[in-house]
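Q: Given only this backbone (375 positions), what sequence would you predict?
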């Protein structure tokens, strides 16, 4: 959609945009074609009143007799503090998002609208990550946020939430792109996280108020996550996952795709390995992402050593026995029997020491009584 001059965001004009946006069967591409043909929503609505536009009958009827209650509900939402609805013709609309094939004609935003114009990196991954994957996402997000990138994700369980929290840990902005209307939070357990994100960054959606979390919404949401960003980093993903859909969107949009490799025994590493085989950049450190982005992220820099103190979890010195035990545990799930055999310690000693290592953040317990090393 070509950039156009700014459209004043007053109620009358915004109402016209909202009528097009709410019409059944009319999506971003159709609205784009209507705006190219009629120049403005008002002109398209005037044409709809006198002629058929080649639309489905339900859409044609809606444009002639719109559901005013739904329009007024969105307008009322936009009047609340911290809320804004921006059109694709306003300067506040993100420039990178405008470049994709099907940019949303409207964005509902709650929080700091200026965050949308900052350099962004998308981070996505499994909703059920390993403890190691979750920790990796948090630490990468801390580093990249300190380097000057705004972390963008989807507020989902697992890697998404860990990425948002990593940025918040170092008091940097993060953006959550939602698959619902912004008058609700999904999943509901992330209500407090959503509030924190809105305080430091922004919640964003293309969906009107009242939109429930329907499955078909999330692939549409994913194209916005990648469209807002310079690139996308996949931390952990199964071979069939929404994260790979987002990565595919990024590739189609000309964005950089990064993936973190993992153990061949970890099913959640297979999606990342697939991406790497398809040409995604393999990254082992967060600085690898900065280096690869190069001129695209010209404003980014390696965080100062004193700043990186915020990004590192506090370490605790370990005795020789604990170091010996830690060396017996892999970064992939390892059974207690294997640890006992490798370390030479008794089962009772191993169980007690594993508990201490877990409490100190060196290992994590996995399903099936297994443990994996975190650092």
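A: Predicted residues:
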């Amino acid at each position: 959609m070509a950039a156009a001059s700014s459209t004043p965001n007053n109620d009358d004009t915004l109402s016209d945009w909202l009528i097009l946006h709410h019409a059944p069967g009319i999506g971003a591409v159709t609205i784009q074609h209507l705006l190219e043909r009629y120049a403005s929503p008002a002109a398209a609505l005037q044409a709809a009143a006198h002629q058929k536009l080649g639309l489905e009958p339900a859409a044609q009827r809606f444009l002639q007799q719109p559901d005013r209650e739904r329009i007024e509900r969105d307008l009322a939402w936009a009047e609340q503090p911290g809320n804004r609805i921006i059109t694709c013709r306003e300067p506040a609309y993100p420039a990178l998002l405008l470049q994709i094939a099907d940019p949303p004609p409207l964005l509902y935003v709650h929080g700091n609208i200026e965050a949308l114009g900052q350099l962004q990196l998308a981070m996505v991954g499994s909703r059920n990550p390993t403890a190691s994957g979750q920790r990796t996402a948090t630490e990468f997000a801390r580093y990249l946020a300190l380097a000057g990138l705004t972390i963008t994700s989807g507020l989902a369980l697992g890697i998404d939430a860990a990425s948002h929290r990593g940025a918040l840990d170092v008091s940097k902005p993060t953006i959550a792109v939602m698959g619902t209307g912004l008058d609700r939070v999904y999943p509901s357990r992330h209500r407090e996280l959503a509030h924190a994100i809105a305080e430091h960054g922004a919640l964003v959606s293309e969906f009107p108020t009242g939109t429930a979390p329907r499955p078909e919404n999330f692939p549409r949401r994913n194209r916005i996550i990648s469209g807002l960003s310079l690139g996308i980093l996949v931390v952990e993903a199964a071979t069939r996952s929404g994260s790979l859909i987002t990565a595919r969107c990024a590739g189609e949009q000309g964005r950089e795709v990064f993936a973190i490799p993992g153990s061949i025994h970890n099913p959640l590493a297979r999606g990342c390995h697939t991406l790497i085989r398809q040409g995604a950049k393999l990254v082992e450190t967060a600085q690898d992402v900065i280096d690869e982005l190069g001129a695209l992220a010209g404003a980014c820099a390696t965080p100062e050593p004193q700043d990186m103190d915020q990004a590192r979890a506090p370490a605790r010195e370990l005795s020789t026995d604990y170091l010996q035990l830690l060396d017996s545990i892999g970064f992939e799930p390892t059974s207690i029997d294997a640890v006992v055999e490798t370390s030479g310690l008794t089962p009772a000693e191993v169980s007690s020491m594993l508990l201490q290592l877990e409490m100190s953040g060196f290992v994590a317990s996995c399903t099936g009584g297994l443990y994996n090393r975190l650092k």
